[in-house]
Amino acid sequence: MTQKERIVIGRLAPSPTGYLHLGNAWSFLLAWLSARLGNGKIFLRMEDIDPARSKPEFIDGILEDFAWLGLDYDGEIVFQSRRIQIYEEYLQKISPFVYPCFCTRKELREVAGAPQVTAPGDRLIMPDMGAVYHRTCRFFSPEERKQKTGKNACLRLACPPFEKQEYEIIPEQFHTAAPIFSFNDLILGKQEFDLNACGGDFAVQRSDKVWAYQFAVSIDDMLMGINQVVRGADILTSTPRQLYLFQLFGHTAPEYAHIPLLLDPKGERLAKRHASLSLKTLRQKYKSPAPLIQYLSRFLAVDGNAGSARELLACLKEKKIQSLPWDMLKQYENAIQTNFT
Ligand code: GLU
To answer: pLDDT tens across 156-208, in order?
Structure first.
């Protein structure tokens, strides 16, 4: 199938840990338009994997926001909280690469060096690579591990390069694997990262048994057949980790577009704490989503009076636009300062 004939299968993947804001509307609008412009599919996945932070009222809020904006989705909603069994099963498939880490937060802080990766441009507000993990628990013998049993352990994924002493358990095709992962971002162009500079061996399950974001997202993208991921540039350095997981599972990775983050007038990244820009507040203030949709359309150089995401789609289709103008977003690198109130 040529690139042209391929139908986008995208996803909207909100975390119901707070009310969505203007920045979320921006990412979801782009993900949705990208899929719908080529008559593709878009699935809704609630990333409610963390029971302590996810709340039913935020799920309701997200569904109301989507209905208000005019963002529809295909099929049933996928809830990560209902997929624990699946994550368990997929963990078994990569068990040679997984080891328990007994380090406490304090120990990790003490040995961690400063993160070494800088994402393109200087304005990335929150690169998500975390501190580098120094493989402290990776080479413990089975006896040493046994001694520590009972201590809360998270599960980490061993990243390349592998040491000779690991060759017995690591499948042969990975013995000389390199930690370098590259991909062509639809907006940022060619990206290349060294996994070890992005934090090294990362957690797939936290010590409180909550599945880690990187792991759950990769399994879900894989099983849901997602072939295009449109998300904020703040997640850029997660992508090499997810590419590594795809490689371990022998699965083709989706294509990625890491979109510029919206910043408030002070240059701070929009977050759930910007209550005045929460979609819940904007819904009450404006009743119609038109002002917001029209404001966001300008970053795509679309003028017009679309009253909802659906109307914006119709307007783009009328102009015979079949895919999002990704190049247009290059000019912003990874952040756009906004003055929407
Ligand atoms: N659930 C994540 C968030 O709301 C997005 C994950 C992703 O798009 O990969 O930040």
So the answer is: 999 999 999 999 999 999 999 999 999 999 999 999 999 998 889 999 999 99
| Ligand 1 atom at minimum distance from 242 CA | 9
* 211 lies in some domain: yes
* CA gap 331, 187 in Å, rounded: 9
Question: Does the beta carbon of 217 sit less than 6 angstroms from any atom of ligand 1?
Answer: yes
Q: Can you give the CATH number for the domain in which 170 is found?
A: 3.40.50.620
132 CA → ligand 1 middle, Å: 22
Which residues are bridge partners to 46 per DSSP?
79
Q: Relative to the CA of 231, which ligand 1 atom is closest?
A: 8
Domain-located, residue 129 = yes
Q: Does 1 map to a domain?
A: no
Report CA(14)–ligand 1 centroid distance (Å): 6
Predicted TM-score of the model (pTM):
0.93
Tokens coding 34: 């990208």
* Alpha-carbon distances of 158 from 66, 113, 142, 212, 323, rounded to whole Å: 39, 19, 16, 15, 38
Answer yes or no: is the C-beta of 231 below 6 A from any ligand 1 atom.
yes
